[in-house]
Write a structure and sequence with these properties.
Elements lengths: L1 E5 L3 E5 L15 E6 L5 E5 L4 E5 L4 E4 L7 E6 L4 E6 L4 E5 L7 E6 L6 E2 L2 E6 L5 E5 L2 E5 L5 E4 L15 E5 L2 E5 L4 E6 L5 E5 L6 E7 L2 E6 L4 E4 L6 E4 L12 E6 L4 E6 L5 E5 L6
Parallel strand pairs: 10-11
Antiparallel strand pairs: 1-2, 3-4, 4-5, 5-6, 7-8, 8-9, 9-10, 12-13, 13-14, 14-15, 16-17, 17-18, 18-19, 20-21, 21-22, 22-23, 24-25, 25-26
Length: 279
């Protein structure tokens, strides 16, 4: 790892695992690097270990993970660092703390935490953190208390309810699930309600777009919903000339309120301009 230091230009210093260096760093391949608001660097190495590098002290501190190994990391705006683990679970580190202790919140196996593969993490406007899993939702509030939401009256052999994406608009958090099911959580009264869209498919993304909700499905195109009027517009191959396929991998909304859709067909990308209202 090379850290630039400004001193009449830039000075580069190399940190690496070697018998010549008394460092905690044990692997020279860095897969993920994130910087928190205190300018401390969080590193995930190839072997699934996680370290914090303090540029002031030039020290590496290793996160004690036991037998767990990290697959990817996500840093939230409030300073929480989430580790997605190779065992399908997830752990959380408070980067505002002086220590590097992690708390296990989900475990894809059968021996602890919320049982379900960790898929995504989201922070709402109340600074509550939501862990989306293959078997429900976990909420961590500002005090660190947790609560769970999963399918009620689940019968033996029935499918688990997975959640793939989230979006916060006004006082509601929208959670995307399968079969066109979107669970809407009110930040006002902490109550969930079910919204079933006309596209009965896996919802891969929900985005806010000029006061409307842009809902992207896996194989049935896109829905644009106006929460004020309740009106829905569906876009796909049937009504949009040149729309290559109704199957979509992902979507990104840029700063100019243009949505970019990654299609499943190789090399195909569609864009939606909300100002011009066209693809």
């Amino acid at each position: 790892m090379i850290i630039p230091k400004e001193n009449d230009g830039y000075e580069f210093k190399v940190y690496k695992s070697s018998t010549d260096y008394q460092l905690a760093l044990a692997n020279n391949r860095v897969d993920v690097l994130l910087v928190d608001d205190k300018n401390r660097v969080w590193i995930q190495t190839y072997d699934g270990q996680v370290f914090r590098f303090d540029q002031t002290t030039e020290r590496f501190e290793q996160v004690q993970m036991g037998t767990e190994r990290c697959e990817s990391m996500l840093l939230l705006p409030n300073g929480s660092l989430w580790l997605f683990l190779k065992g399908d679970g997830a752990a959380r580190i408070n980067t505002n703390s002086d220590d590097v202790a992690m708390t296990l919140y989900a475990d894809g196996r059968e021996n602890g935490g919320m049982k379900g593969r960790a898929l995504h993490v989201f922070q709402d406007i109340k600074n509550q953190e939501w862990l989306l899993t293959g078997n429900g939702l976990l909420k961590v509030d500002k005090q660190g208390s947790t609560s769970y939401f999963s399918q009620a009256n689940k019968r033996k052999g029935s499918e688990s309810q997975a959640f793939y994406a989230a979006c916060c608009m006004n006082d509601t958090v929208y959670f995307a699930s399968d079969k066109g099911r979107i669970w809407c959580y009110s930040l006002h009264n902490d109550i969930f309600r079910l919204w079933e869209i006309p596209l009965v498919d896996k919802v891969v993304a929900i985005n806010q777009l000029d006061g409307k909700l842009l809902v992207t499905t896996e194989t049935q195109g896109v829905l644009l919903h106006d929460p004020h009027t309740g009106n829905n517009q569906v876009f796909g191959r049937k009504n949009i000339p040149g729309f290559p396929t109704d199957a979509i991998h992902s979507v990104f909304v840029d700063s100019k309120h243009v949505a970019w859709f990654e299609m499943t067909e190789w090399g195909k990308v569609m864009r939606y301009d909300s100002a011009k209202k066209n693809f």
